[in-house]
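Recall that a protein's primary structure is simply its ordered list of amino acids. Everything else, from secondary elements to tertiary packing, is in principle encoded there. The following example makes that idea concrete.
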Amino acid sequence: MKYIALFVMTLILSASGCREKKASNVAQPAVRVEITSCDTREVAFIVNSIDASSVSYGVGTTADEAKDLAKEEATSTTGAGVLELSWSGLEPLTDYVLCVRGNGPSGEEGKWETASFRTLEERSYVPTFSSVSLVGYWHREPRVWDAARFGPHVSWKAPGGTEQWLFEAFLFLEGSDWLHGKTFVLGPGESAGKAEWQYQLDLWLGPEGCVKELDNACQAVAGRIGAPPAKRGVIIGIPDAIMFQRFSDKNSSTTYWGDGLDFASVEDRLKALRWYIDSARRMFSTLGCKYLELSGFYITSEEIYLPWDIDVNCRYKNWDVIAPALADYCHDAQEGLYWIPYHMGPGYKYWKQLGIDQAWMQPNWYWDLKSSSKHPFSKTISAIKEADMSGMELEFEYSCVASQMTGGTMGPDGAGNLVFTADDVPALKDRVRQYMKEFKDAGFYGVKSIALYSGTNAFTQLATSPDAADRALYDELCQFIIGGKRKP
């Protein structure tokens, strides 16, 4: 009997082992989730599933709440598929967690996958600003914008005084993809495609990108002096949707961008631009920024030729259609469209008709130290008044920073020729001060807006310089920016 019992027990254990082995071969359902868009009250997302007859998904302020609220949606009969889903009824400016799980045909439950996001602020207006700092330019050194580098743009502590919030908004822009050798603006060179557009978005809006670093810089200031009076604005530069892979070669490809789009079609170019804007919105919503808001987008091209302009390439640019369409797309989400033309750049007189919300004029006068009649300031001031532009760009770069112009370092003029030396630094500093004086003398101070272009890093270089004259100019600029806040 003992042997019979042992034999029976062996059979039971063997069968149990077979069952366990069989169960282990059952494929576990799996999902991958990607948020595609997010606005004030709704999030949309795509779920890719494998070996799942259905998916469970929910949104809540915590993962547990999201799982408790989960709904179920069937997938394809093959157990694999792509579902486009959404969740509405959310609160604006709130942090949420999206939880998704695959369910097998026999009740198997896969692992919960999560994605965090923040809904957008519900605005009844398009944001405009008294002061905007231009940042970016990844093709120049240094290429990384971290919290420390942003610090002098975020707040200013007056000598012997208190610390104050500084710029109201930050414009992230770039003209070229230095790594891949592509251009984001219409001109010579090879046009950037979808991969390069995404690469640029990743640099700015990735989980550890510079927008998150800007929020970290704001958090550090808030810890010292309290929250800002309003969230700091983030404006994202939009690449040109260039018809040809090489604009100088009208026989080059018009289908180079990707996704099967043909840029010979204006509508296909708009599809690409809307994809870019939607991607930026989605990526910003996942960052969970506490002190920033996505305020809108920027036309990176510094000229907008219209059908009546004398330009042989005008028919390939279609700005008369594209700019208003971009404005409408931004305005639908209560976002702004912004622009800074070069000195007397084509289209500046028609910025309002194009739907642009703020436009600043570049004087380009800083670089005329050795040819001062090229861009007379009187012409800039008259153009701003004539077109009722939002304001002026205040321009300078490292060539006015004494601590940078050492050891034979040369600075470029407006055409990129290295012409400035350390001997020119005092005169270039005076030029920066002249910008502030001309702005005030024109009656713009406290009425119109300032967009600050400081090259790659000159504003931070002034602030952190060991040279007393450099730091003095930084203090003057900060006082000018803070004191020039537009009156309601």
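Residues 1-24 have pLDDT under 50 and may be disordered. The chain is about 30% helix and 25% strand.
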